[in-house]
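Example record

Each entry pairs one chain with its bound ligand, zinc ion.
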Amino acid sequence: MQLSNSPKSPIAAFFKQQGFVLLDGGLATELEKRGHNLNNNLWSASLLINHPQEIRKVHLSYLDAGADCITTATYQASIPGFAEQGISEKKAKSLLKKALEIASEAREQYLDTSKNKNPSRIRPLIAVSIGPFGAYLADGSEFRGDYSVSTQELRSFHESRWEILADSSADIFAFETIPSFREAVVLLDLLQSTPEVYAWISFSCTDGMRISDGTHLAECAELFVNCEQIVAVGVNCTAPQYISSLINQVRQGAPAKPIVIYPNSGEVYDENRKSWVGSSDLINLGTAAIEWFNLGARLLGGCCRTTPSQIGDMRKALLSLQNRKTP
Ligand SMILES: [Zn+2]
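Structure tokens for the complex follow.
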């Protein structure tokens, strides 16, 4: 499979050396395990204010598990979101930057430990998470995409955060859990306004074919075919059972794009109860990673309710594959 990937892309070195990029897993899940209550509208981003070092420890646990890329605690962090919690614009901007600093500290700490001074290991990447407008609303609409705002309002929302983060030292951006075709168009336009920046985009899906607002995933993927700044297109925070079919949908829409997938555990978030319900599929993410890689996924990891140990399983499985290097 010939994948379009500029040599300047931050993931090119990983493809060349190992054939895949291993992402991290759930951040909130690990923070909750550490005793933090994240039932507020800022979710993981709330800890940026009071317990930033806890976020650093979770990043570090994913690097230790083998992740090639860690994702910042900015998914639900936005200027209007912080403002609603009484946080000034100035402070909000500094918190967004703080999230990136914490991830950088974790990476430095990881690289400083003697066992990681292995010159063949590629320096891990930091992806800045850009959640959808629905994540700011915190009403579950990130899984529906039924926003009652104009496209201009959507753009203004994203622009206020993009202006700060696109100018940062992030390696790459993660437009993630995107539920709406209209929002994907807005994000593409914003990305193209900063031509030196790379990103991946991944959608939240409701079944094996469609993103949350009902648009076919293949149609969404097609939007990004000619955008070199988009290094991968795919799916996250979606039940593992749909991933194989969704990978095929991305390939239909954007045959030459690398595919990114990081499913959740299969449980469903209940907005009213503010908790996860149902049982996980008890899926073995290591075994699944091999299936997804063979179907064409090249950036793989986990989303909500996945753990460092599962990311470790995925690494082991992917490294065990022969012929995993992309031509
Ligand atoms: Zn998730």
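The mean pLDDT is 91.
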